[in-house]
Amino acid sequence: MSDAALIGIVERLETRGQAPEELDRLSRFMALRVTTLPRIRGLFVYDKTGAWIASSLPSLPVGFNNSDRAYFQRHLRSPERSSFLGTPVLSRSSGEWIVTLSRRYDAPDGSFAGVVLATLDASYFFEHYAHFNVGPHGAIALMHRDGTVMARYPDGPTTVGRNLSRGPLFQQGLPNAPSGNLRYVSPVDGRDRISGYRSSSRLPVVLLVALDVEDALAPWRSDALWRFGAVLVLVGLIASVGWWSIRQAELRQCAEVARLETETNFRLLAEHSGDMVSRIGPDGRRRYVSPASLKIIGRRPEDLLGRNVFEDVHPDDQAELERTVEALKRGQVGEVIVTYRHRHQDGRDIWLESSVHVSLDPHSGEPDGVVATSRDVSDRKALEDALRSMAATDGLTGLANRRRFDEALAAGRSYAIGRGSPLALLMIDVDNFKGFNDHYGHQAGDDCLKKVASAIASKVQVSGAVIARYGGEEMAVVLPHTELRTACEVAEEVREGVEALRLEHARNTAGSWVTVSIGVACRSFAVSERDDDVEADLVMVADKALYAAKNNGRNQIMPPVTGAWEVRDRLGPRTFGACRARVVN
Which residues form the catalytic set? Predict the structure, then answer.
C-alpha cells in the first residue's frame, strides 16, 4: 500500500512538475492518502538537496534537511527506480522510531530530482504481533537483513534499532538457509528459545517467531500429571464397578415390579390426559394412541394404530423429525421437544409440539421405540409469527427495521460467498429533510417518509432484495447477486420514482420537490472467501458515496468513491458522471 502511494506521487511530480501551486495540491493529496491509509504515518517529498518541499503534515518544518539519511544517499548515488526499504530511524518530525520506504524521482532530463518517502510507525508492527499467542515468554521479531531490529514483541520500541547481526540467527541460521528452525539463547533477554524464521524473497527483511523452551514443555508436564491422576481414578473405578454389579442384581428384581406398576399408571394418565400420547415402535408405526387424538388431529385412536407416524407430517418438517427420532433410538439424546406441522382430518395443517423420549425394552433394557406427548400449539405459533414480524418491521414506514437490515446484510454476505456472486447496497437519504420538518411540521414529515418508502418499494424489483429504514430519513436497500451497473440502474429508478411523487419541498436546495441522494456500494466475492468485516466495509463505502452525492448537489446517485476497497466490475473503474450516463442511456 505504501509503495502504491509512492508510485502515484512520483508520477505526479514527473508529469506535473514542482510549481508552488502543484506542490500545494500534492500536499493536500498526500494528506488525504494518509487519512485513507492509516497504517502510513506520513508521506514526504524532498528535492535534490534534501530539503522538504511537500508532505502530508499540516505545515512544512523549517530548517529540516534529510540529505544525510541513508535512503536519500542511496537514491542520489543509484539511478534505480525501484523502492528502497531502509532500516529504522528516529523521525525528525515526531521523535519516534519509524520504518522508511522511498523512491527516487527524476527531472525531465533524467537526472536526479529528489526523493519521495513513506514512513510507518515501528509501533504498528508491535501492536500487530501482540495479537498472536507465543506464550508468556515468546517473542516475534521483524529484522532488516543487516541485523537491525525493526520491531519486536513484547519489547516494543525499546529494542528497535538494535543490531543483532552477531546473534545466532545471522551467524548460524540465515547463512545455511533462507528459512528454517533454530534453537538459541536470546541475545536480548538470555532466554532459551526454539524458533522458526523466514527471509523475504522480495524485501530485505527477516521474520523470527520464537517460543520459550519452558513454555513449550509446560503442556507435556501438565499432561503427565493428568495421566497419573487418570490411572488413580481408573483403579478406584474398577473397585466401584464390582460393588455396583452386585447392587444391580439386587435392584433388577425390584425394577421389574416397579415397571409393571409404572405401565399401569402410564395408561391411566394417558387415557385421561388432554394431550395426545403415542407409543411408536422401531419401524416408525404407532403401537398405542390415547383418546385425545380425536380432539387434537380429528382422528380416532383405532384409525391411527399401525400407521406410520410420519405420513401426515408436513413435507418440509418430515426430514428434521425423522432425524430427531433416529437420534433418540440410537441413544444420542434421551428426550427432545420438537415443533412441526401435521395434517388435520379436515385437511388443514396444524402445529403440534411433541415431547419425545425413548422407551426401553423391559427385558433387554435396549431402546425399542419412542413415546411422544403432543399438543396443538397453532394459536401460539401464529402469535409468535406475528410478534416476529412486528419485531422486524419499522412502525412508521412499514419497511424492515434496522435489526432486519443487519440480518439481511449478513445473510446476503453468506449467500454471495457461497456462490461467488456480488452483493450491492444502496444508502438513500431524503434531501434537506430537516428543512422539510421545520417548514411543514413533523406530521407532514412522517407522511413524506411513508410515501418515499412506498416509492422505493415499488421500484426495487431485484429478487431477494430487502428494503429497510436505516435511521431517521435514511433508508437502505440490500441487493443480493447484483453487480455495480445493475445496482446503479436500480438506484436511478428509485431516485426518479421519488422525484415523480412531486411532493412539494420549499426548502430543498436540489429542487422544488422532495428528492433523494443515493450512495451505491458493491462487492464481488470468490467462492469460500472469508471476510468478517464485509458488512461494516460495505456500509462505510455506501455512506461515503452518499455523502459525496449530497456534497455534489443532491438529487443524484453516486457509485463508490473511496473506502476499504474500490469496486471494479467488468466495465472497469468509473467516475460518478460516467456511471450515471451509462444508467440514463
Answer: 473
Q: What is the sign of the dihedral through the CA atoms of 177, 179, 182 and 188?
A: positive
Per the CB < 8 A criterion, the answer to whether 407 and 387 are in contact is: no
Please give the grid coordinates belonging to residue 16.
Answer: 506535473
Judge whether 496 and 516 are in contact, CB under 8 Å: no
Tally of CB atoms within 10 A around 268:
10
A 10 A CB-CB count for 531 gives 13
Supply the pTM of this predicted model.
0.41
Could you give the angle at which helices 2-16 and 20-36 cross, rounded to 10 degrees? Answer: 170
What's the CA gap between 29 and 23, in Å, rounded? 10
- For 307, the grid coordinates are 400407521
Q: For 26-85, what is each residue's pLDDT tens digit? A: 999 999 998 888 788 889 999 999 998 998 888 777 667 889 999 999 999 999 989 999
Residue 161 has which C-alpha cell? 534499532
Stated as kind and residue range, the H or E segment containing 24 is helix 20-36
Q: How far apart are CA 87 and CA 169, in angstroms?
A: 18
Q: Are 205 and 142 in contact (CB under 8 A)?
A: yes
Asked if the model's pLDDT at residue 521 lies above 60, the reply is: yes
The pLDDT tens digits for 357-382 are 877 776 676 777 778 888 888 777 77
pLDDT exceeds cutoff 70 at 414? yes
Report which DSSP code applies to 563: S
Alpha helices in 203-335 (DSSP H): 213-272, 293-297, 301-304, 315-329
Q: Compute φ and ψ for 93, nearest 5 degrees.
A: -90, -25
Rg (CA), the chain: 36
Q: At what angle do helices 484-499 and 442-459 cross, to 10 degrees?
A: 140
Q: Which residues contact 61 (CB under 8 A, 6 or more apart)?
A: 52, 92, 93
